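The material for today's practical consists of a large collection of protein records. A record pairs a protein's sequence with a compact description of its fold. Instead of coordinates, the fold is spelled out as a row of discrete tokens. We will come back to this pairing of sequence and fold again and again. Here is such a record, shown just as it appears in the course material.
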Amino acid sequence: QEAIRTAINDLSNSGITTLTYQTTDENGNVIGIRNYDIEGTVRREVLTNARKLSGAINLEVANELESEYLYISEHLRCRPSHFDWQGTIVKRNDFVRITHYGEVDGIYGINCEHYAEAYFGEKRGDDLKHYSQEECEEAYDLSQHQRYLERGVRKWTRKSEMFKATDDLELYSKAKDKVKEWQLRVKDFTEENNLKRDFTREYVKKSQNSKLEKQYKEHKEAEKVGIFDITKYTKDIKTTTNEVILNDNRREHLKKHPEIEKYIPEIKKILNDPDSVYLELSKEDTVWVVKKLDENLKITLKLNTFTNKKEKGYKNSIIQMQILNEKRIKKYIEKGRIKELFDKNNKK
């Protein structure tokens, strides 16, 4: 892993961020070009070539021992095209034909983790095979989705680094938020499927910009406007956090409504001591928090609940603020749009 990280850092320091591969036909004519990020490519090339060297040594040892048979290793996440021959004992003379040794999609090819070694036991064919095709296909599909999520982390980390280099706080903040979102998706997926998280596959070399990073932290702190504990009003909803934010888009929208904007400094007090709380029945994660100030002010909160798989890890966020009189609130209750969770007057 240290060799992989060193190679990535050296390439990054040279200004190289992608590696280009050409596909050629039998006559050497270029028929395709593909670009890969350096992180995934360096890892693939280092590991593939290390395994290829180890495999060549094993085969040379088998030749010197004049072993008639070879045992081919077996692992759960093997690609479908390798399943038939993994975990089998084959004749050494048939090894190349069966495993496509020397080809890009054969044993010791790109990303192949199999190895072969001399075998002198009495087992033959599939006698030592442990895994079923169904088990391997399921594990392979899970591993491929994990690779997809890891690429997402690297993609947004590179974008954040690009915006960091240009001192663009707005786009840097958005990219950093996406990095955290994809990292959380990896964490949730690996935990839910009992998989090992591989942080080296998420690694991208980072540059230093202390000023911008400080501004980003201050910006995220500025979004926090208060605390709201839904468990005070109902035991049926649980959130991942009690923190409430008002993001930039919502804040800019409120500035267009001076009659509402003046109440922004009061948000913390409203959330901490509401007069009433209502659940929006069409959405299990949305509540109305109402406080009588000069007039009835309603804050619509989107809660980040434990059942919210898509946005797990997000903060509770304010999506709307408006003046709403008691008569309209009663109408919404009668129409079945909202359900009262709490009212300070009757202590419900």
